[in-house]
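Worked example

This section walks through a single chain of length 303. The input is the sequence exactly as stored; nothing has been trimmed or padded.
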Amino acid sequence: MVGTTQRDTGAEGAEGVAGGVGVTALLVAAARAIETYRHDTLAQDVFAEHFVLAAPASAGWPTRPHQVPEGDANPLWGRFARYFGLRTRVLDDFLLRSVHTGGARQVVLFGSGLDARAFRLDWPFDCVVFEIDRAEVLSFKEGVLDGLSATPKAARVPVPVDLRADWVAALADAGFDTTAPSVWLAEGLLFYLPAVAEKALIDTVDRLSTQGSALAYEAKLESDLTVYRDSPLYTATAQQIGIDLLNLFAKEPRPDSAGDLAGKGWATSIRTPFDFTRQHGRGPLPEENDALAGNRWVFASKP
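Given that input, the structure is written out below as tokens.
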């Protein structure tokens, strides 16, 4: 059933991905679907296209490479989708390395959206994956996955809570153990949050993390994102699927979260996506008026 392309129906909670930041989860899912079926794929997510097909908000979006007008020359479904495919691969590798060689057995996905990592990655038998997101987003995802009879490869624990609420208490109620090493992931999340919320989240991760824990997140360096208002990536996203990313991003300068972590004793590494393009031999490279120029992927470990 997973290999079919028929439109999935009956998924509950579709309103959770119908607009605003929620619909960006569908954008990433469509990019992962396209990446899955590329001849030179970096990441496999056979569930991604089913999320796109199940949601009215993404009706008509491509989920296979041959459906993309202009192919890789398309700024949205070519270059931007390649970016999401590369990001998926890099963060997949980070998570698996953290549990298989780093020893963490708790994985916390902030704003998990339509992330299907609990179902598609090869986790240790005793690993627990906590997915934090709004209840309606998790309901939509679970409706689609239930329709596919999908089985998680780790103990999957949904944590239906808005990150603006008391997610720490919700995570504790879900069984999170602050005495055990954990690996945290904030993929494509922090630049939607006010600076004070990002700082609070990073501080809380530090407080809840014991030695041997790890964290990865995505950040933007620019103090003024509007300088890329006319970039091909942003204009194509607005024109082709009606998502104005700059209206969703927080407008204020971002905090130096990597510096804060280093000051708390974490070992940090800051990389550009282009570093991994060169490492893997495919993915986006720098271009003029590049909305990806300030993107950084931060990796941190608590020794």
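What to look for: The first helix runs from residue 21 to 36.
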